[in-house]
């Protein structure tokens, strides 16, 4: 066991956190007092009451600063991130956070900071190349099924995005492509993370059963310009520009701007805002569906009513009544012709019956049976049955058949002058 310090005494009361902080505050204010500090402004922001909060930084350290409204009103320039300044003020402690800070009473501008200068140079060069041109911006899909996210797997940005998407549209799938988001190694990792998500749309990925993402969100939480510097890297900017999938940038807070914001298809002020932009709220979607159904119903009802009125107008028009009248006239004429045809057929049938009756009477008068009844007979040769109408048709000794109205007789031809009866005797 180590020896106890000589200051450790049962009678000595421990300090509270507030007492320790106040002691440090007094030491800083009395031992250091007023100083002038040269550095680069970062994270410049102004509260609703007009007080400015920012940091002064160099290559190795950062100090928190506050410029109250009264001192800020006396400035002769508008401070901004990247500006190089000399700040005059007193070293103190913000007790609520136990954080030492510089209470600035005046600022003197000395030039642009190196980081900000590099930012402006890259921004202007890429702008001239056309990487920021709005004509290259692709539309963000309104209802994406799969969302790719490029960010740290352990950062707050991912938690915020997942929380918002799950609340607004639980059915959407989130595909994380993890990467570093800070430090010298971050830019190439961010590039690889974007390329990984783009490769999900390749034929090889399709053969492996991997589906492409519909949109990519490149995200990081807030921080200083150094913390966000990976997203000011030219390699990251060109990877976003070359992406085959639309990209939303959500880097830092609303006041933070990076090169990635300018080249992306859409900038969101925060990761949470990006999630709200990329997916619609399911309740709002349902309401839109209801409204669309109502609009379709109204349009269809109006269309049906319009067509009904047009049809009624056409039915009342002479153009349609005339063909209908022609059909009616033709129908009536057909009935008339049918009646006339039936009457003609009846007359023809009656006339034919009379003619048949007349011809029947005439035929009856010529019927041999009728002649026989009047005392005539029909003589025919026995040998061939031929009717004899002339004397020359028979020879002596020919046998004849004589048909009477009742019965038949047999006879023979004898020479002229010979008494048939005598011969027969």
How is this fold's topology laid out?
Layout: H1 17-31, E1 34-46, E2 52-57, E3 62-67, H2 69-72, E4 83-94, E5 99-112, H3 114-129, E6 146-151, H4 156-168, E7 173-178, H5 186-199, H6 203-207, E8 215-220, H7 234-242, E9 247-251, H8 259-263, E10 266-267, H9 271-278, H10 282-316, H11 318-366, H12 368-373, E11 378-381, E12 399-403, E13 408-412, H13 420-424
Helix pairs in contact: 4-9, 5-7
Account of the protein in words:
- Helix content is 43%, strand content 21%.
- The protein is α/β, with parallel strands linked by helices and 425 residues long.
- The chain folds into four domains: 17-112, OB fold (Dihydrolipoamide Acetyltransferase, E2P) (Beta Barrel), CATH 2.40.50.140; 131-280, Rossmann fold; 282-326; 372-424, no CATH class.
- A hairpin with a 5-residue loop joins β1 (34-46) and β2 (52-57).
- Mean pLDDT is 83; it is low at 1-6.
């Amino acid at each position: 066991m180590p020896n106890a310090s000589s200051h450790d005494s049962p009678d000595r009361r421990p300090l509270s956190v507030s007492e320790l902080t106040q002691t440090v505050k007094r030491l800083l204010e009395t031992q250091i007092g007023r100083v002038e500090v040269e550095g680069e402004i970062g994270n410049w922001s102004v509260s609703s009451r007009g007080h400015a909060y920012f940091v002064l930084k160099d290559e190795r350290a950062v100090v928190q600063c506050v410029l109250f409204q009264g001192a800020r009103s006396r400035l002769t320039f508008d401070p901004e991130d990247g500006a190089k300044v000399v700040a005059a003020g007193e070293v103190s402690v913000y007790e609520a956070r136990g954080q030492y800070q510089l209470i600035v009473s005046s600022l003197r501008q000395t030039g642009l900071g190196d980081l900000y200068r590099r930012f402006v140079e890259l921004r202007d060069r890429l702008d001239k190349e056309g990487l920021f041109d709005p004509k290259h911006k692709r539309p963000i899909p309104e209802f994406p099924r799969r969302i790719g996210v490029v960010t740290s797997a352990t950062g707050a940005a991912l938690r915020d995005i997942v929380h918002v998407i799950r609340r607004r549209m639980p059915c959407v799938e989130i595909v994380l492509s993890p990467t570093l988001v800070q430090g010298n190694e971050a830019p190439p990792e961010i590039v690889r993370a974007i390329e990984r998500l783009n490769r999900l749309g390749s034929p090889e990925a399709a053969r492996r059963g991997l589906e492409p993402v519909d949109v990519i969100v490149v995200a990081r939480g807030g921080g200083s310009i150094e913390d966000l510097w990976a997203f000011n890297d030219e390699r990251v900017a060109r990877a976003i520009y070359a992406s085959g999938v639309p990209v939303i940038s959500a880097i830092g807070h609303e006041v933070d701007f990076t090169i990635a914001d300018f080249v992306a298809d859409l900038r969101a002020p925060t990761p949470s805002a990006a999630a709200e932009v990329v997916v619609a709220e399911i309740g709002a979607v349902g309401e839109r569906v209801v409204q669309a159904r109502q609009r379709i119903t109204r349009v269809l009802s109006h269309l049906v009513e319009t067509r009904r009125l047009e049809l009624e107008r056409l039915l009342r028009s002479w153009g349609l009544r005339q063909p209908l009248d022609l059909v009616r006239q033709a129908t009536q004429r057909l009935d008339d012709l049918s009646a006339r045809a039936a009457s003609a057929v009846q007359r023809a049938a009656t006339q034919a019956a009379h003619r048949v009756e007349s011809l029947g009477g005439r035929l009856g008068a010529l019927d041999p049976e009728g002649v026989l009844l009047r005392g005539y007979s029909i003589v025919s040769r026995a040998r061939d049955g031929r009717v004899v109408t002339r004397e020359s048709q028979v020879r002596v000794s020919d046998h004849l058949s004589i048909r009477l109205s009742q019965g038949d007789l047999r006879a023979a031809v004898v020479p002229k002058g010979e008494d048939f009866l005598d011969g027969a005797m």
